Amino acid sequence: MKHLLDLRDELEQEAEPLALYFDGFESTAVQLQALEKGHYSLSKDRSYLVVCEVGQKSKLAVMYLQADGFAAEHLEGGILDLRKATEQEFILPYSDALLDSLSRHPKVRFVARDGEQLVVRGSLSVEEVEAF
Questions:
Q1: How far is residue 3's CA from residue 95's CA, in Å, rounded to a whole number?
Q2: Could you give the CA distance from residue 21 to residue 6 in angstroms, rounded to a whole number?
Q3: What is the pLDDT of residues 81-92, one digit of tens each?
Q4: DSSP string spanning 55-111?
Q5: For residue 98, what are the CA distances in angstroms to 46, 61, 78, 117?
Q6: Residue 128 near residue 98 (C-beta atoms within 8 A)
Q7: CATH of domain 3-83
Q8: What is the Cα–Cα distance from 18 to 48, expressed in whole angstroms?
């Protein structure tokens, strides 16, 4: 199984955890500068999928890792393309309980009130939304 290396900053990681897209994978936050300078501790027994927001930093990071003898590849298009491919938007009737519940759901990236409706974006399936 590949291990995920997350090049995004802390705020991006908190706002959109990799668990939204990669269920059951382990991930490690790492800075591109650390990879460039060789200041990291990774196992050569693992293969790595390097992730960033749009795919450019991860492509560069893979070059550094491969030059050091690591098995690594990057997520083409980054989280942005992955989000476009997997995310759906739902409009639901507003309730405080639903807002609270969806705000804490691990597959929900965005939820906001719009009048008497909730706008929900995330990697939820129709079946999961209907369960609410």
A1: 39
A2: 13
A3: 998 898 899 999
A4: SHHHHHHHHHHHHTT-EEEE-TTHHHHHHHHH-EEEEEE--HHHHHHHHT-TTEEEE
A5: 41, 41, 31, 11
A6: no
A7: 3.40.250.10
A8: 14
